[in-house]
Amino acid sequence: MSVLREKILHVASDLFQTRGINSTGVDTIVAVAGTTKMTLYKYFRSKEDLILEVLQKGHADFTTWLSNNLNKNTKKPSERLQKLFDFIEEWVTAPDFRGMAFLKASAEFPNEENPVHRLSAEQSRQFRQFLVELAADAGARDPDSLALQLSILIEGAIQAEQIKRGSGAVKYAKKAAKILIENSLETQAAA
Amino acid sequence: MSVLREKILHVASDLFQTRGINSTGVDTIVAVAGTTKMTLYKYFRSKEDLILEVLQKGHADFTTWLSNNLNKNTKKPSERLQKLFDFIEEWVTAPDFRGMAFLKASAEFPNEENPVHRLSAEQSRQFRQFLVELAADAGARDPDSLALQLSILIEGAIQAEQIKRGSGAVKYAKKAAKILIENSLETQAAA
DNA sequence: GCGGATATATACAATTTAGTATATACGTAT
DNA sequence: ATACGTATATACTAAATTGTATATATCCGC
User: What is the pLDDT of residue B187?
Assistant: First the structure.
């Protein structure tokens, strides 16, 4: 039943990432997915609904993948913060990496009232919150501050990689993150 | 003569930033600019040409503004690197700030062969080169590395501000930059 | 004041867009 | 086998897209 639904989601996600959301018509999506518009609108109320679901699935997949990897490969909470950028780098350098969906989506829908933009902003907030908990568990002096800085580094590096594949930005972001993390853990007593 | 041309450029720039490039039709542009399509196509060969010119003008204005401010308000080259984020913050917190044009444009045109994407990538590269020279003049240990890190911080913070106005990301990016800059200047002998 | 070039406005063409109404094939229960 | 409900395919609508052909106003030298 829902195999076509999954297929549509997958194809739409791929096309949105490679061609842009607004530049991808529903006709193209159904053609590539090997189905018809009638079926698409059976499963999704509108194109906007499809966009929102694609974003949600993408974000869920990413956060699940990341936290699973962090939990599997580390023992102490403090390790997780150190390993974070290793997995980000692994994710970015994977051959099927196409960018961070909510970053692109927010650029295509700049109006803050727009549902797609709102979801993007919410996902960005959730990701930052995830980093706050990571920083807090690791014993950072100011978890909010460190988490926001790390999120800026991650999103900035991914942005750079979206503009030019193979820019190596993540490697430099990783070095910067190491310095910031050490700085936040070392100077517990200071300030 | 060219007052209408300037007007079209200005209006297009504003609409592209507030509504997105692909979501803004030429009809809307000429309506807001108070002219007609015939005039627009007199001055610009195609919509893509208009987009490219808007991007070029935006980038030129930004870099001119930034380097002028840096030159005026600093004496020693090492000061410039410190003041950099002050001006970035001033730029971002200005009420008419609408985001960094080439970041959004590259998201709307993800295909690396696309002329708009290529120009965006080129502008990103130029900005990074500008930072490299700044870092070199300031006597950074590894100017390329520091410049790339700073560009990641700047573009990441701006990205955060595009998703959510008033996120205060630049303030945190500034703190991070300070740490990275100090680190790069202090440890001249190391490594 | 008049003729000619230039800029502007109106109207249009061809495609593409999201979304839908209708018709047809198909699988299942009896 | 047959009747029924569901999924799919075709065809269509209405609006919006970029770009252009034609008509009209405006401004200049003389």
Answer: 58
Write down the H helix ranges in B74-142.
Answer: 77-93, 101-108, 115-138
Using an 8 Å CB-CB cutoff, list chain B residues near A180.
176, 179-180
Of A161, A147, A45, nearest to A103 by C-alpha is: A161
Chain C bases closer than 7 A to any CB of the protein: 7-11, 16-22
Q: Report the mean per-residue pLDDT for chain A.
A: 93
Q: A171 is written with which tokens?
A: 């490697």
Q: What percent of chain A has pLDDT over 70?
A: 96
Q: What percent of chain B is predicted at pLDDT more than 70?
A: 96
The arrangement of secondary structure in B47-186, i.e. its CATH architecture, is Orthogonal Bundle (1.10)
Tell the burial category of B155 from Cβ atoms under 10 Å away from its Cβ (0-12, 13-18, 19+): buried
CATH topology (fold) of A46-186 = Tetracycline Repressor; domain 2 (1.10.357)
Residue of B149, B151, B165, B185 best to disrupt the A interface, most CBs of A under 10 A = B149
Instruction: Report d(CA B133, CA B138) in Å as an integer.
Output: 8
Residue with tokens 């595009």, as numbered in its chain: B162
What are the tokens at A176? 């910067």
Residue-wise pLDDT for B30-57, tens only, equals 999 989 999 999 999 999 999 999 999 9
Q: Locate the domains of chain A by residue range.
A: 1-44, 46-186
Q: How far is B134 from chain A (nearest CA, A)?
A: 18
Residues 33-72/A with CB < 7 A to strand D: 35-39, 42
Which among B122, B114, B146 has a CA at the least distance from the CA of B60? B122
pLDDT number for residue A134: 95
